[in-house]
């Protein structure tokens, strides 16, 4: 019935037709704001939500596909009786005093967030199904970043760090400032989301995160950082070469148990499934009481609009169909 961006919204309580949604999507792709589209109204996301909630909507669901700190807005939506679907990791990983999942549970509302980890891959679904069937998850480990997966796969092929990072930027795999990816913060958020599902009770601040950005380059401008990247090539070549001499490859991984969450570089044996990971693929390895000797492995594209949208749509359909 409605779509919201940073400055406005389009809403029709009778529903937006597919044709209208396609037109709105095109306009956003062309850089237009919703307020400038046909039927667009100005307003903050909070005002837009209040306006929509004032109508007697049947089984409303708010879908958060922003990258912002939206906890307050999500709490509002829950208070208005909405269920939630999230692709946005931040409200789940950077919980403040009012955790979204706890607020939802307290209000009898449901939250689905498959796309927060591994995009469209059935990662959250797998965790939920294992637990529902009485299995105990002992450990989840893997490579949950397409960007860092690509970078380390290229390094393994002997490519220079600056060259591999430049190519990742050209292909649109990184955030505009690649330090966002290289800092490991995004992987840490995904690790926190998974860890909470297996009983870990810590916060993002408790996660050991290994950043790939050298200390002196963390606070300089983006341009200064990019200019300094080639100075890191020799050290990376030596590190990758040393691992190769031991028959191993370097990968950026998250390791999650109920007691500990670690995010950083791991040396994996060349025969390990992670060593043969390609392109921007993600991989998740579940070691459980039932899948102990031969863990359950999920591998596949972990980013991109089409697969992410499919994950979001599946969540919406699950909520719509379950009531
Ligand atoms: N792309 C992927 O492959 C992928 C995969 C898995 C998960 N995700 C997650 O999906 C989310 C979106 O990713 P993206 O690449 O599409 O990001 P993006 O290009 O930055 O788009 C974010 C959109 O959210 C809008 N927005 C921001 N804050 C808002 C608010 N408070 N209320 C309403 N709208 C707001 C922005 O509006 P304006 O247009 O007005 O600025 C923009 O249209 C992120 O959390 C990302 O981590 C993405």
Structure, explained:
The structure is a single chain. The protein has 323 residues and is an alpha/beta fold. It has 13 helices and twelve strands. The chain has helices at residues 18-29, 45-53, 71-79, 90-93, 100-106, 123-132, 146-156, 161-170, 179-182, 185-197, 222-228, 233-245, 305-322, and strands at residues 2-4, 8-11, 41-42, 61-64, 83-86, 111-112, 137-143, 208-209, 248-256, 261-269, 281-288, 296-301. It is globular. The two termini are 19 Å apart. It binds NADP nicotinamide-adenine-dinucleotide phosphate (NAP). NADP nicotinamide-adenine-dinucleotide phosphate binds next to helix 13.
Key terms for this structure?
12 strands, alpha/beta, 3-stranded antiparallel sheet, 323 residues, binds NADP nicotinamide-adenine-dinucleotide phosphate, globular
Form type: globular
N/C terminus separation = 19 Å
Counted beta strands = 12
Task: Sketch the major β-sheet.
Answer: 6 strands, mixed
The proportion of residues in beta strands is 15-25%
| Bound ligands, each once | NADP nicotinamide-adenine-dinucleotide phosphate
H-E string: EEHEHEHEHHEHEHHHHEHHEEEEH
* Order of neighbouring strands in the sheet with most strands: 8-10-9-7-11-12
Overall residue-averaged pLDDT value: 94
How many helices does DSSP assign?
A: 13
List unreliable stretches of 5+ residues.
none
Helix content: 25-40%
Assembly state (oligomeric): single chain
Structural class: alpha/beta
Whole-number radius of gyration? 21 Å
